[in-house]
Amino acid sequence: MVFLCGMIVGIFQLGMEIRFFYITFIILSIYPVKAQNSYSLNFDGEADYVEVPYGSAMIANAGQITLCGWVYPRNTNSGWPDFDAFFGFRNESDADFYLLQLDNYKVEGRLRVTENVAYTVVTAAESNRPDTWYHLALTYDGANLFVYINGIEAGSTEASGQIINENVSLTIGRLVFQTTNFDLDGQADEVSLWNIALTEQQIQDYMYADLTGEAGLVGYWNFNEGTGDIANDAGGNDNDGLINGAVWSTDIPFTGGGQCDSSEVELWNQCYSIENTTELDLSNRGLTGEIPPEIGNLTNLTFLDLQWNDLTGSIPTELGNLTNLAWLSLYFSGVTGLIPAEIGNLANLTHLDLQWNGLTGPIPPEIGYLTNLINLGLGTNELTGPIPAEIGNLTNLTSLRLNSNSLTGAIPVSICGLDLNWSSSSDFNISNNQLCPPYPSCIENYAGEQDTYNCTQAAITDETFPITYSLYNAYPNPFNPFTTLRYDLPEDAMVNITIYDMMGRNVKTMVNSQQNAGFKSIHWDATNDAGIPVSAGMYFYAIQASYFHLVKKMILLK
Protein backbone atom coordinates (compact mmCIF):
# COMPACT_ATOMS: atom_id res chain seq x y z
CA MET A 1 0.00 0.00 0.00
CA VAL A 2 1.30 3.48 -0.86
CA PHE A 3 0.65 6.55 1.29
CA LEU A 4 1.35 10.22 0.46
CA CYS A 5 0.83 12.82 3.14
CA GLY A 6 1.41 16.61 3.24
CA MET A 7 0.25 20.08 4.22
CA ILE A 8 -0.30 23.28 2.26
CA VAL A 9 0.11 26.57 4.16
CA GLY A 10 -1.12 29.90 2.83
CA ILE A 11 -2.03 33.44 3.89
CA PHE A 12 -4.54 36.03 2.81
CA GLN A 13 -5.35 39.56 3.94
CA LEU A 14 -8.84 40.61 5.05
CA GLY A 15 -8.82 44.38 5.44
CA MET A 16 -6.06 45.15 7.98
CA GLU A 17 -6.13 41.54 9.28
CA ILE A 18 -3.79 38.85 7.98
CA ARG A 19 -5.10 35.28 8.28
CA PHE A 20 -3.38 31.89 7.77
CA PHE A 21 -4.99 28.76 6.41
CA TYR A 22 -3.83 25.08 6.44
CA ILE A 23 -4.89 22.25 4.17
CA THR A 24 -3.78 18.82 5.24
CA PHE A 25 -4.06 16.02 2.67
CA ILE A 26 -3.60 12.27 2.68
CA ILE A 27 -3.63 10.30 -0.56
CA LEU A 28 -4.12 6.58 -0.12
CA SER A 29 -3.44 4.28 -3.03
CA ILE A 30 -5.88 1.38 -2.93
CA TYR A 31 -3.62 -0.85 -5.01
CA PRO A 32 -0.36 -2.32 -3.67
CA VAL A 33 2.75 -1.76 -5.74
CA LYS A 34 3.81 -4.98 -7.43
CA ALA A 35 7.02 -6.34 -5.94
CA GLN A 36 10.22 -6.10 -7.94
CA ASN A 37 10.93 -9.78 -7.50
CA SER A 38 14.30 -10.98 -8.83
CA TYR A 39 15.51 -13.95 -6.77
CA SER A 40 14.33 -16.70 -4.47
CA LEU A 41 16.22 -19.04 -2.13
CA ASN A 42 16.76 -22.68 -3.05
CA PHE A 43 16.90 -25.32 -0.28
CA ASP A 44 18.25 -28.82 -0.99
CA GLY A 45 16.49 -30.64 1.88
CA GLU A 46 19.77 -31.26 3.70
CA ALA A 47 20.38 -28.64 6.42
CA ASP A 48 19.69 -25.55 4.30
CA TYR A 49 17.72 -22.88 6.17
CA VAL A 50 17.46 -19.19 7.08
CA GLU A 51 17.47 -18.17 10.75
CA VAL A 52 16.19 -14.89 12.17
CA PRO A 53 17.39 -14.87 15.83
CA TYR A 54 14.83 -13.95 18.48
CA GLY A 55 12.21 -13.79 15.78
CA SER A 56 9.36 -14.54 18.17
CA ALA A 57 9.99 -11.17 19.81
CA MET A 58 8.39 -9.60 16.73
CA ILE A 59 4.98 -11.04 17.62
CA ALA A 60 5.32 -11.66 21.37
CA ASN A 61 2.25 -10.53 23.34
CA ALA A 62 0.39 -9.78 20.12
CA GLY A 63 -3.22 -10.84 20.08
CA GLN A 64 -3.06 -11.44 16.32
CA ILE A 65 -0.41 -12.89 13.96
CA THR A 66 0.02 -13.51 10.24
CA LEU A 67 2.80 -15.43 8.48
CA CYS A 68 2.93 -15.44 4.65
CA GLY A 69 5.21 -16.52 1.85
CA TRP A 70 5.69 -18.31 -1.45
CA VAL A 71 6.91 -21.92 -1.57
CA TYR A 72 7.93 -24.29 -4.33
CA PRO A 73 7.98 -27.83 -2.86
CA ARG A 74 9.91 -30.54 -4.69
CA ASN A 75 9.64 -33.47 -2.28
CA THR A 76 7.44 -36.19 -3.81
CA ASN A 77 7.72 -38.47 -0.76
CA SER A 78 6.88 -36.30 2.21
CA GLY A 79 5.71 -39.04 4.55
CA TRP A 80 6.98 -39.26 8.10
CA PRO A 81 9.72 -38.42 8.95
CA ASP A 82 10.42 -36.68 5.66
CA PHE A 83 8.09 -33.73 6.22
CA ASP A 84 9.11 -30.43 4.64
CA ALA A 85 9.21 -27.23 6.69
CA PHE A 86 8.17 -24.00 5.04
CA PHE A 87 8.63 -21.27 7.66
CA GLY A 88 7.77 -20.16 11.18
CA PHE A 89 8.62 -20.71 14.87
CA ARG A 90 8.64 -24.04 16.68
CA ASN A 91 9.87 -24.94 20.18
CA GLU A 92 7.11 -27.44 21.10
CA SER A 93 6.42 -25.80 24.45
CA ASP A 94 5.15 -22.25 24.27
CA ALA A 95 5.97 -20.67 20.91
CA ASP A 96 4.81 -22.46 17.76
CA PHE A 97 3.54 -20.62 14.71
CA TYR A 98 4.50 -22.34 11.48
CA LEU A 99 3.52 -23.92 8.15
CA LEU A 100 4.69 -27.45 7.29
CA GLN A 101 4.06 -29.94 4.48
CA LEU A 102 2.82 -33.37 5.58
CA ASP A 103 2.18 -36.57 3.64
CA ASN A 104 -0.17 -36.64 0.65
CA TYR A 105 0.58 -32.96 -0.03
CA LYS A 106 -1.32 -31.70 3.01
CA VAL A 107 -0.31 -28.45 4.70
CA GLU A 108 -0.21 -28.12 8.49
CA GLY A 109 -0.53 -24.77 10.24
CA ARG A 110 -0.03 -24.67 14.01
CA LEU A 111 -0.24 -22.19 16.87
CA ARG A 112 1.11 -23.13 20.32
CA VAL A 113 0.64 -20.52 23.03
CA THR A 114 2.21 -19.85 26.41
CA GLU A 115 0.14 -22.42 28.30
CA ASN A 116 1.53 -25.14 25.98
CA VAL A 117 -1.84 -25.43 24.30
CA ALA A 118 -1.64 -26.18 20.58
CA TYR A 119 -4.15 -25.49 17.83
CA THR A 120 -3.67 -27.17 14.47
CA VAL A 121 -5.16 -26.87 10.99
CA VAL A 122 -4.44 -29.61 8.43
CA THR A 123 -5.64 -29.01 4.89
CA ALA A 124 -7.11 -31.65 2.60
CA ALA A 125 -4.83 -34.04 0.73
CA GLU A 126 -3.47 -32.80 -2.62
CA SER A 127 -3.59 -29.19 -1.41
CA ASN A 128 -0.35 -28.59 -3.24
CA ARG A 129 1.77 -30.36 -5.80
CA PRO A 130 5.50 -30.64 -6.33
CA ASP A 131 7.29 -28.31 -8.73
CA THR A 132 4.66 -25.57 -8.53
CA TRP A 133 4.74 -22.22 -6.75
CA TYR A 134 2.10 -21.70 -4.03
CA HIS A 135 1.37 -18.78 -1.75
CA LEU A 136 0.73 -19.86 1.83
CA ALA A 137 -0.57 -17.82 4.75
CA LEU A 138 -1.27 -18.65 8.41
CA THR A 139 -3.35 -16.14 10.36
CA TYR A 140 -4.53 -15.95 13.96
CA ASP A 141 -7.15 -13.32 14.86
CA GLY A 142 -7.42 -14.07 18.59
CA ALA A 143 -10.33 -16.46 18.14
CA ASN A 144 -9.57 -18.56 15.08
CA LEU A 145 -6.56 -19.97 13.22
CA PHE A 146 -6.72 -20.00 9.39
CA VAL A 147 -4.61 -21.49 6.60
CA TYR A 148 -4.82 -19.90 3.16
CA ILE A 149 -3.44 -21.36 -0.08
CA ASN A 150 -3.13 -18.97 -3.00
CA GLY A 151 -5.29 -16.48 -1.15
CA ILE A 152 -8.18 -18.90 -0.56
CA GLU A 153 -9.08 -20.30 2.85
CA ALA A 154 -8.06 -23.98 3.04
CA GLY A 155 -8.91 -24.75 6.68
CA SER A 156 -9.53 -23.22 10.10
CA THR A 157 -10.04 -24.01 13.78
CA GLU A 158 -10.92 -22.09 16.93
CA ALA A 159 -7.91 -20.88 18.91
CA SER A 160 -7.01 -18.56 21.78
CA GLY A 161 -4.05 -17.32 23.81
CA GLN A 162 -0.75 -15.55 23.11
CA ILE A 163 2.91 -16.23 22.53
CA ILE A 164 5.05 -14.29 25.04
CA ASN A 165 8.39 -16.08 24.58
CA GLU A 166 10.73 -13.63 22.81
CA ASN A 167 13.70 -15.98 22.35
CA VAL A 168 12.62 -18.41 19.60
CA SER A 169 14.21 -18.01 16.18
CA LEU A 170 12.10 -17.68 13.07
CA THR A 171 13.35 -20.20 10.50
CA ILE A 172 12.69 -20.55 6.80
CA GLY A 173 13.28 -23.98 5.25
CA ARG A 174 13.68 -25.84 8.56
CA LEU A 175 11.63 -26.79 11.63
CA VAL A 176 12.80 -29.13 14.36
CA PHE A 177 10.75 -31.83 16.07
CA GLN A 178 12.67 -33.28 19.03
CA THR A 179 15.80 -34.61 17.27
CA THR A 180 14.31 -34.68 13.75
CA ASN A 181 14.93 -31.86 11.28
CA PHE A 182 12.17 -31.15 8.80
CA ASP A 183 14.24 -29.61 5.99
CA LEU A 184 12.69 -28.13 2.87
CA ASP A 185 13.51 -29.62 -0.51
CA GLY A 186 12.33 -26.72 -2.62
CA GLN A 187 12.32 -22.94 -2.75
CA ALA A 188 10.89 -20.04 -0.78
CA ASP A 189 10.35 -16.38 -1.54
CA GLU A 190 8.67 -13.19 -0.27
CA VAL A 191 8.22 -14.29 3.38
CA SER A 192 6.50 -11.79 5.70
CA LEU A 193 5.48 -11.67 9.38
CA TRP A 194 2.76 -9.45 10.84
CA ASN A 195 1.44 -8.65 14.30
CA ILE A 196 -2.09 -8.32 12.93
CA ALA A 197 -4.47 -10.82 11.34
CA LEU A 198 -4.66 -10.14 7.60
CA THR A 199 -8.04 -10.73 6.00
CA GLU A 200 -8.44 -12.98 2.98
CA GLN A 201 -8.70 -9.90 0.77
CA GLN A 202 -5.53 -8.39 2.23
CA ILE A 203 -3.66 -11.66 1.66
CA GLN A 204 -4.73 -11.59 -1.97
CA ASP A 205 -3.77 -7.92 -2.29
CA TYR A 206 -0.30 -8.45 -0.78
CA MET A 207 0.59 -11.72 -2.54
CA TYR A 208 2.38 -9.85 -5.32
CA ALA A 209 3.00 -6.57 -3.50
CA ASP A 210 6.21 -4.76 -2.60
CA LEU A 211 5.75 -4.34 1.15
CA THR A 212 7.02 -0.97 2.35
CA GLY A 213 5.87 -0.27 5.89
CA GLU A 214 2.28 -1.52 5.88
CA ALA A 215 0.52 -1.41 9.24
CA GLY A 216 1.36 -4.50 11.28
CA LEU A 217 4.32 -5.61 9.13
CA VAL A 218 7.18 -6.58 11.47
CA GLY A 219 9.40 -8.63 9.15
CA TYR A 220 9.75 -8.99 5.37
CA TRP A 221 12.36 -11.15 3.65
CA ASN A 222 11.95 -10.80 -0.11
CA PHE A 223 15.28 -12.54 -0.98
CA ASN A 224 16.14 -10.05 -3.68
CA GLU A 225 19.80 -9.70 -2.69
CA GLY A 226 20.94 -12.38 -5.13
CA THR A 227 24.28 -12.77 -3.36
CA GLY A 228 25.75 -13.18 0.11
CA ASP A 229 24.56 -14.98 3.22
CA ILE A 230 22.31 -12.30 4.74
CA ALA A 231 18.58 -12.13 4.11
CA ASN A 232 17.80 -8.50 4.76
CA ASP A 233 14.56 -7.40 6.37
CA ALA A 234 13.17 -5.37 3.48
CA GLY A 235 10.40 -4.07 5.72
CA GLY A 236 12.88 -1.78 7.45
CA ASN A 237 12.61 -3.36 10.91
CA ASP A 238 16.23 -4.66 10.95
CA ASN A 239 15.21 -8.26 11.59
CA ASP A 240 17.80 -9.68 9.21
CA GLY A 241 18.29 -13.43 8.75
CA LEU A 242 21.39 -15.59 8.34
CA ILE A 243 21.40 -17.92 5.32
CA ASN A 244 22.79 -21.38 6.08
CA GLY A 245 23.54 -23.40 2.94
CA ALA A 246 20.61 -22.21 0.81
CA VAL A 247 21.59 -20.75 -2.57
CA TRP A 248 20.17 -17.99 -4.70
CA SER A 249 17.88 -18.82 -7.61
CA THR A 250 16.30 -16.82 -10.42
CA ASP A 251 13.31 -19.19 -10.49
CA ILE A 252 10.67 -17.01 -8.87
CA PRO A 253 6.89 -17.18 -8.39
CA PHE A 254 6.25 -13.96 -10.28
CA THR A 255 8.09 -11.02 -11.77
CA GLY A 256 7.55 -7.46 -10.67
CA GLY A 257 6.07 -4.48 -12.41
CA GLY A 258 3.68 -6.49 -14.57
CA GLN A 259 6.32 -6.86 -17.29
CA CYS A 260 6.99 -10.37 -18.59
CA ASP A 261 10.06 -10.96 -20.71
CA SER A 262 10.15 -12.93 -23.96
CA SER A 263 10.69 -16.21 -22.11
CA GLU A 264 7.46 -15.78 -20.13
CA VAL A 265 3.72 -15.64 -20.57
CA GLU A 266 1.51 -13.26 -18.60
CA LEU A 267 -1.72 -14.74 -17.30
CA TRP A 268 -3.95 -12.73 -14.98
CA ASN A 269 -1.13 -10.29 -14.11
CA GLN A 270 1.39 -13.00 -13.33
CA CYS A 271 4.36 -14.16 -15.39
CA TYR A 272 5.02 -17.83 -16.07
CA SER A 273 8.14 -19.33 -17.58
CA ILE A 274 7.46 -20.93 -20.95
CA GLU A 275 10.22 -23.48 -20.42
CA ASN A 276 9.79 -24.30 -16.74
CA THR A 277 6.03 -24.19 -16.19
CA THR A 278 4.84 -27.79 -16.27
CA GLU A 279 1.91 -27.60 -13.83
CA LEU A 280 -0.51 -24.72 -13.40
CA ASP A 281 -3.11 -24.89 -10.64
CA LEU A 282 -5.21 -21.71 -10.72
CA SER A 283 -8.36 -23.31 -9.34
CA ASN A 284 -10.68 -21.31 -7.07
CA ARG A 285 -8.70 -18.07 -7.48
CA GLY A 286 -11.58 -15.76 -8.36
CA LEU A 287 -10.16 -15.33 -11.87
CA THR A 288 -12.26 -13.24 -14.23
CA GLY A 289 -12.29 -12.39 -17.92
CA GLU A 290 -11.46 -14.68 -20.81
CA ILE A 291 -8.76 -17.33 -20.81
CA PRO A 292 -5.82 -15.53 -22.45
CA PRO A 293 -4.89 -17.18 -25.76
CA GLU A 294 -1.24 -16.79 -24.71
CA ILE A 295 -1.78 -19.77 -22.45
CA GLY A 296 -1.18 -21.84 -25.57
CA ASN A 297 2.51 -20.87 -25.42
CA LEU A 298 3.06 -22.90 -22.24
CA THR A 299 3.72 -25.98 -24.31
CA ASN A 300 5.45 -27.90 -21.50
CA LEU A 301 2.30 -27.95 -19.39
CA THR A 302 1.18 -31.39 -18.26
CA PHE A 303 -1.41 -30.18 -15.71
CA LEU A 304 -3.85 -27.27 -16.05
CA ASP A 305 -6.61 -26.62 -13.51
CA LEU A 306 -8.86 -23.55 -13.91
CA GLN A 307 -11.93 -24.90 -12.13
CA TRP A 308 -14.12 -22.87 -9.75
CA ASN A 309 -13.45 -19.43 -11.22
CA ASP A 310 -15.59 -16.66 -12.75
CA LEU A 311 -14.29 -16.73 -16.30
CA THR A 312 -16.14 -15.52 -19.38
CA GLY A 313 -15.90 -16.22 -23.08
CA SER A 314 -15.03 -19.37 -24.95
CA ILE A 315 -12.24 -21.91 -24.65
CA PRO A 316 -9.38 -20.54 -26.79
CA THR A 317 -8.35 -22.68 -29.72
CA GLU A 318 -4.76 -22.14 -28.59
CA LEU A 319 -5.33 -24.73 -25.86
CA GLY A 320 -4.85 -27.21 -28.66
CA ASN A 321 -1.15 -26.32 -28.63
CA LEU A 322 -0.69 -27.89 -25.18
CA THR A 323 -0.02 -31.35 -26.55
CA ASN A 324 1.79 -32.49 -23.40
CA LEU A 325 -1.27 -31.99 -21.21
CA ALA A 326 -2.39 -35.03 -19.26
CA TRP A 327 -4.90 -33.21 -17.01
CA LEU A 328 -7.28 -30.38 -17.99
CA SER A 329 -10.11 -29.13 -15.81
CA LEU A 330 -12.42 -26.19 -16.48
CA TYR A 331 -15.10 -27.50 -14.13
CA PHE A 332 -17.50 -24.72 -13.02
CA SER A 333 -15.20 -22.07 -14.45
CA GLY A 334 -17.79 -20.02 -16.35
CA VAL A 335 -16.64 -20.66 -19.94
CA THR A 336 -19.19 -20.57 -22.76
CA GLY A 337 -19.32 -21.14 -26.50
CA LEU A 338 -18.21 -24.08 -28.59
CA ILE A 339 -15.78 -26.82 -27.58
CA PRO A 340 -12.99 -26.15 -30.09
CA ALA A 341 -12.09 -28.93 -32.50
CA GLU A 342 -8.46 -28.32 -31.53
CA ILE A 343 -9.17 -30.15 -28.28
CA GLY A 344 -8.53 -33.25 -30.36
CA ASN A 345 -4.83 -32.33 -30.52
CA LEU A 346 -4.38 -33.16 -26.83
CA ALA A 347 -3.61 -36.81 -27.41
CA ASN A 348 -1.91 -37.27 -24.03
CA LEU A 349 -4.96 -36.25 -21.99
CA THR A 350 -6.15 -38.73 -19.39
CA HIS A 351 -8.52 -36.33 -17.59
CA LEU A 352 -10.82 -33.81 -19.29
CA ASP A 353 -13.47 -32.10 -17.18
CA LEU A 354 -15.60 -29.33 -18.75
CA GLN A 355 -18.69 -29.88 -16.60
CA TRP A 356 -20.99 -27.19 -15.17
CA ASN A 357 -20.39 -24.44 -17.69
CA GLY A 358 -22.34 -22.79 -20.52
CA LEU A 359 -20.79 -24.68 -23.42
CA THR A 360 -22.97 -24.86 -26.54
CA GLY A 361 -23.02 -26.56 -29.91
CA PRO A 362 -22.07 -30.14 -30.76
CA ILE A 363 -19.51 -32.43 -29.18
CA PRO A 364 -16.71 -32.26 -31.75
CA PRO A 365 -15.96 -35.62 -33.37
CA GLU A 366 -12.27 -34.84 -32.79
CA ILE A 367 -12.90 -35.92 -29.21
CA GLY A 368 -12.35 -39.42 -30.58
CA TYR A 369 -8.64 -38.66 -30.99
CA LEU A 370 -8.17 -38.55 -27.21
CA THR A 371 -7.63 -42.27 -26.91
CA ASN A 372 -5.71 -42.03 -23.63
CA LEU A 373 -8.68 -40.49 -21.80
CA ILE A 374 -9.69 -42.17 -18.58
CA ASN A 375 -12.17 -39.54 -17.36
CA LEU A 376 -14.37 -37.43 -19.66
CA GLY A 377 -16.84 -34.97 -18.16
CA LEU A 378 -19.02 -32.79 -20.41
CA GLY A 379 -22.15 -32.82 -18.23
CA THR A 380 -24.35 -29.87 -17.21
CA ASN A 381 -23.76 -27.64 -20.21
CA GLU A 382 -25.94 -26.65 -23.17
CA LEU A 383 -24.47 -29.02 -25.74
CA THR A 384 -26.66 -30.03 -28.68
CA GLY A 385 -26.65 -32.49 -31.55
CA PRO A 386 -25.84 -36.20 -31.49
CA ILE A 387 -23.22 -38.06 -29.52
CA PRO A 388 -20.46 -38.58 -32.12
CA ALA A 389 -19.72 -42.17 -33.10
CA GLU A 390 -16.04 -41.40 -32.45
CA ILE A 391 -16.78 -41.66 -28.73
CA GLY A 392 -16.29 -45.38 -29.27
CA ASN A 393 -12.57 -44.78 -29.87
CA LEU A 394 -12.05 -43.90 -26.19
CA THR A 395 -11.48 -47.45 -25.07
CA ASN A 396 -9.51 -46.47 -21.95
CA LEU A 397 -12.43 -44.58 -20.41
CA THR A 398 -13.53 -45.52 -16.91
CA SER A 399 -15.82 -42.51 -16.47
CA LEU A 400 -18.09 -40.81 -19.02
CA ARG A 401 -20.51 -38.02 -18.02
CA LEU A 402 -22.64 -36.35 -20.73
CA ASN A 403 -25.70 -35.72 -18.56
CA SER A 404 -27.87 -32.59 -18.39
CA ASN A 405 -27.36 -31.22 -21.88
CA SER A 406 -29.63 -31.05 -24.94
CA LEU A 407 -28.08 -33.90 -26.91
CA THR A 408 -30.40 -35.41 -29.53
CA GLY A 409 -30.75 -38.31 -31.93
CA ALA A 410 -29.72 -41.91 -31.65
CA ILE A 411 -26.93 -43.08 -29.38
CA PRO A 412 -24.14 -44.57 -31.51
CA VAL A 413 -23.68 -48.32 -31.09
CA SER A 414 -19.94 -47.69 -30.92
CA ILE A 415 -20.47 -46.68 -27.31
CA CYS A 416 -20.82 -50.36 -26.47
CA GLY A 417 -17.15 -50.82 -27.27
CA LEU A 418 -16.29 -48.96 -24.06
CA ASP A 419 -15.50 -50.89 -20.90
CA LEU A 420 -17.59 -48.87 -18.45
CA ASN A 421 -19.57 -49.76 -15.36
CA TRP A 422 -22.88 -48.85 -17.01
CA SER A 423 -24.91 -49.26 -13.83
CA SER A 424 -22.86 -46.72 -11.85
CA SER A 425 -24.06 -43.13 -12.38
CA SER A 426 -20.68 -41.83 -11.23
CA ASP A 427 -18.98 -43.81 -14.00
CA PHE A 428 -21.59 -43.44 -16.75
CA ASN A 429 -24.29 -40.79 -16.98
CA ILE A 430 -26.12 -39.57 -20.10
CA SER A 431 -29.43 -38.75 -18.39
CA ASN A 432 -31.44 -35.55 -18.86
CA ASN A 433 -30.89 -35.19 -22.58
CA GLN A 434 -33.15 -35.67 -25.61
CA LEU A 435 -31.63 -38.93 -26.84
CA CYS A 436 -33.93 -41.22 -28.77
CA PRO A 437 -34.68 -44.92 -28.39
CA PRO A 438 -34.09 -47.66 -29.23
CA TYR A 439 -30.88 -47.52 -27.22
CA PRO A 440 -27.85 -49.76 -27.80
CA SER A 441 -28.16 -53.00 -25.88
CA CYS A 442 -25.31 -52.24 -23.49
CA ILE A 443 -27.07 -49.17 -22.07
CA GLU A 444 -30.76 -49.78 -22.73
CA ASN A 445 -31.38 -49.96 -18.97
CA TYR A 446 -29.01 -47.11 -18.06
CA ALA A 447 -29.94 -44.21 -20.35
CA GLY A 448 -31.75 -42.43 -17.52
CA GLU A 449 -34.45 -39.82 -17.99
CA GLN A 450 -34.69 -38.56 -21.58
CA ASP A 451 -37.01 -36.04 -23.22
CA THR A 452 -38.23 -38.09 -26.20
CA TYR A 453 -40.98 -35.68 -27.33
CA ASN A 454 -39.26 -35.11 -30.69
CA CYS A 455 -38.12 -38.70 -31.15
CA THR A 456 -41.12 -40.15 -33.05
CA GLN A 457 -39.67 -39.62 -36.49
CA ALA A 458 -36.20 -40.59 -35.33
CA ALA A 459 -37.52 -43.84 -33.95
CA ILE A 460 -39.28 -44.62 -37.21
CA THR A 461 -36.08 -43.90 -39.11
CA ASP A 462 -34.04 -46.08 -36.79
CA GLU A 463 -36.43 -48.99 -37.35
CA THR A 464 -36.22 -48.86 -41.16
CA PHE A 465 -33.44 -50.34 -43.24
CA PRO A 466 -31.20 -48.56 -45.75
CA ILE A 467 -32.59 -48.37 -49.25
CA THR A 468 -29.31 -49.13 -51.03
CA TYR A 469 -25.81 -50.40 -50.33
CA SER A 470 -23.42 -47.59 -49.42
CA LEU A 471 -19.81 -47.11 -48.34
CA TYR A 472 -19.02 -43.69 -46.85
CA ASN A 473 -15.82 -41.70 -46.69
CA ALA A 474 -13.62 -42.54 -43.72
CA TYR A 475 -13.90 -40.11 -40.82
CA PRO A 476 -11.65 -38.51 -39.91
CA ASN A 477 -9.54 -38.54 -43.05
CA PRO A 478 -6.59 -37.93 -42.86
CA PHE A 479 -6.38 -39.59 -39.44
CA ASN A 480 -3.97 -40.62 -36.68
CA PRO A 481 -4.39 -43.31 -35.53
CA PHE A 482 -8.15 -43.99 -35.53
CA THR A 483 -10.77 -43.64 -38.21
CA THR A 484 -14.33 -44.86 -38.67
CA LEU A 485 -15.68 -46.68 -41.76
CA ARG A 486 -19.47 -46.52 -42.20
CA TYR A 487 -21.54 -48.60 -44.57
CA ASP A 488 -25.20 -49.49 -45.20
CA LEU A 489 -26.72 -52.90 -45.88
CA PRO A 490 -30.28 -52.88 -47.28
CA GLU A 491 -30.49 -56.66 -46.79
CA ASP A 492 -28.76 -59.47 -44.98
CA ALA A 493 -25.52 -60.25 -46.76
CA MET A 494 -22.09 -61.82 -46.56
CA VAL A 495 -19.79 -58.82 -46.03
CA ASN A 496 -16.08 -58.48 -46.57
CA ILE A 497 -14.23 -55.24 -45.81
CA THR A 498 -10.48 -55.28 -46.35
CA ILE A 499 -7.78 -52.62 -46.13
CA TYR A 500 -4.97 -52.59 -48.72
CA ASP A 501 -1.75 -50.62 -49.06
CA MET A 502 -0.72 -48.73 -52.21
CA MET A 503 0.88 -51.90 -53.61
CA GLY A 504 -2.41 -53.77 -53.36
CA ARG A 505 -1.23 -55.94 -50.49
CA ASN A 506 -3.74 -57.05 -47.89
CA VAL A 507 -3.13 -55.07 -44.68
CA LYS A 508 -6.10 -55.99 -42.52
CA THR A 509 -9.39 -57.81 -42.93
CA MET A 510 -11.91 -55.75 -40.99
CA VAL A 511 -15.08 -57.77 -41.67
CA ASN A 512 -15.61 -61.20 -43.18
CA SER A 513 -18.94 -62.49 -41.94
CA GLN A 514 -22.67 -62.73 -42.53
CA GLN A 515 -24.38 -59.55 -41.31
CA ASN A 516 -27.96 -58.41 -40.85
CA ALA A 517 -29.34 -55.43 -42.75
CA GLY A 518 -28.79 -52.04 -41.14
CA PHE A 519 -26.57 -49.00 -40.71
CA LYS A 520 -23.06 -50.22 -39.82
CA SER A 521 -19.71 -48.81 -38.74
CA ILE A 522 -16.28 -50.18 -37.82
CA HIS A 523 -13.12 -48.54 -36.48
CA TRP A 524 -9.59 -49.02 -37.72
CA ASP A 525 -6.69 -48.36 -35.35
CA ALA A 526 -3.95 -48.31 -38.02
CA THR A 527 -2.71 -51.81 -37.26
CA ASN A 528 -2.36 -54.84 -39.53
CA ASP A 529 -3.76 -58.33 -39.05
CA ALA A 530 -0.91 -59.07 -36.61
CA GLY A 531 -1.82 -56.05 -34.47
CA ILE A 532 1.34 -54.18 -35.49
CA PRO A 533 1.02 -50.43 -36.25
CA VAL A 534 1.42 -49.67 -39.94
CA SER A 535 3.43 -46.81 -41.42
CA ALA A 536 2.00 -43.50 -42.55
CA GLY A 537 0.71 -43.22 -46.08
CA MET A 538 -2.27 -43.85 -48.36
CA TYR A 539 -4.48 -46.90 -47.87
CA PHE A 540 -7.56 -48.26 -49.62
CA TYR A 541 -10.59 -49.91 -48.09
CA ALA A 542 -12.89 -52.11 -50.15
CA ILE A 543 -16.32 -53.55 -49.43
CA GLN A 544 -17.85 -56.62 -51.08
CA ALA A 545 -21.46 -57.35 -50.09
CA SER A 546 -23.68 -59.39 -52.39
CA TYR A 547 -23.37 -57.70 -55.80
CA PHE A 548 -22.09 -54.41 -54.25
CA HIS A 549 -18.36 -53.62 -54.57
CA LEU A 550 -16.68 -50.24 -53.90
CA VAL A 551 -13.18 -48.99 -53.05
CA LYS A 552 -12.26 -45.73 -51.29
CA LYS A 553 -8.97 -44.23 -50.07
CA MET A 554 -7.78 -42.78 -46.77
CA ILE A 555 -4.54 -41.26 -45.50
CA LEU A 556 -2.77 -42.17 -42.25
CA LEU A 557 -0.63 -39.43 -40.69
CA LYS A 558 2.12 -39.96 -38.11
Can you characterise this structure?
With 558 residues, the protein is mainly beta. The chain has three domains: 40-249, Jelly Rolls (Sandwich), CATH 2.60.120; 275-461, Alpha-Beta Horseshoe (Leucine-rich repeat, LRR (right-handed beta-alpha superhelix)); 470-556, Immunoglobulin-like. The protein is 3% helix and 40% strand. The radius of gyration is 31 Å and the shape is elongated. It starts with a strand and ends with a strand.
Summarize the structure.
It is built from two helices and 43 strands. It has 558 residues and is mostly beta strands.
Indicate the topology.
Elements: E1 3-14, E2 17-28, E3 40-44, E4 49-52, E5 65-73, E6 84-89, E7 96-101, E8 107-112, E9 118-122, E10 134-140, E11 144-149, E12 152-158, E13 170-172, E14 174-177, E15 180-183, E16 185-194, H1 200-206, E17 217-221, E18 230-231, E19 241-244, E20 247-249, E21 264-267, E22 270-273, E23 279-281, E24 288-289, E25 303-305, E26 310-311, E27 327-329, E28 336-338, E29 351-353, E30 358-361, E31 375-377, E32 382-385, E33 399-401, E34 406-410, E35 428-429, E36 434-436, H2 456-463, E37 470-471, E38 483-489, E39 493-500, E40 506-515, E41 518-524, E42 537-545, E43 548-556
Parallel strand pairs: 23-25, 24-26, 25-27, 27-29, 28-30, 29-31, 30-32, 31-33, 32-34, 33-35, 34-36
Antiparallel strand pairs: 1-2, 3-16, 3-20, 4-13, 4-19, 5-10, 5-16, 6-7, 6-13, 7-8, 8-9, 10-11, 11-12, 14-15, 16-17, 18-19, 21-22, 37-38, 38-41, 39-40, 39-42, 42-43
